[in-house]
Amino acid sequence: MKILITGGAGFIGSHLLEDLLSSDNEILVFDNFLTGKKENIEFEGSFKFIEDNFGTKNSLNLIKEFNPQICFHLAAQSSVVVSVGDPLLDFEHNILQPVQLIKTLLTTDCSKFVFTSSGGTIFGEPDILPTSEEDFAGEPESPYGIGKKKLNEIITSMTINTHMSYSILNLSNVYGPRQDPHGEAGVVSIFSNKILNNEKPIIYGDGKQTRDYIYVKDVVNALILSSKIDSNLFLNIGTGIETSVNHLLETIKSEFASDIEPIYQESRKGELLRSVLNSSKAQKELNWESQFSLNKGIKEVVSWLTT
């Protein structure tokens, strides 16, 4: 199978690449190292890597020449906070370049476009919890969420009456090894790294805000399963378990046997108070469900950070 991965050196993309290399696939990977890292893809396996934005003229020509059968589109500006500060940057990476990519793929033999959308932002501040695929409460709270929601709509529109179907997966808060512990996003890695270094984690707001934390290998499993289905899919991928930031920190602290207390700061613009996804549709259509509990996943993160 000829497979294209954008954002393949990133947190989720590198895990996806590693999994796909276990089968007999011909893989082309793009990453501009904006948030991805070279060390994320330093493992055995044959694939072609191009360090560039996937949306440049040269990159699009290379993609057309490669002629993929499946595209996993993971590359993105992935920070809510950055999108609030620089919405034009978010628009460029999360809408304009993907549109050029889809236009190019429609001239190839690509029959499936798999996109990682954001289940934690596109539904707005939810009225119904856990939130299903139809439970839009209003417009997203951030440019990041607006961009993800808009691209979902664009993908749906651009693929009508074409040979390419889509799988749009609305991911909850993904965590696991290779998530940048020094970045803005990725609270599990950030908190774990702070405690490992005997530093106080920062919690924005009162810590009662909730998220649905899903382990990266569960997400990769859903991505691959969705790529094998011919029909269009719009699915939530989460655990259905609502966890407060305070409880998350206590869980991480117990793994380190730490008594470090956090620093509380003012909440940040654009972030939701509560978020947890209903993934029953994915369980039915993909025969998928999450396999990693939060405790088990955190143990994997701690092991990665300490080795």
Query: Could you report the average pLDDT, rounded to the nearest whole number?
Result: 94
Largest sheet: 7 strands, parallel
Shape: globular
The CATH superfamily of the domain at 2-174 and 213-238 bears the name NAD(P)-binding Rossmann-like Domain
Biggest sheet, strands in spatial order? 3-2-1-4-5-6-11
Number of strands: 13
Beta-strand proportion: 15-25%
- Named at the architecture level, the CATH assignment of the domain at 2-174 and 213-238 is 3-Layer(aba) Sandwich
**Helical element count?**
10
Quickly name the level 1 CATH class of the domain at 2-174 and 213-238: Alpha Beta
Q: Give the low-pLDDT segments.
A: none
Look at the helices and sheets and give the structural class: alpha/beta
Radius of gyration: 19 Å
- Secondary-structure element series: EHEEHEHHEHEEHEEEHEEHEHH
What's the CATH topology name of the domain at 2-174 and 213-238? Rossmann fold
The helical percent reads 25-40%
Report, as a whole number of angstroms, the end-to-end distance: 34 Å
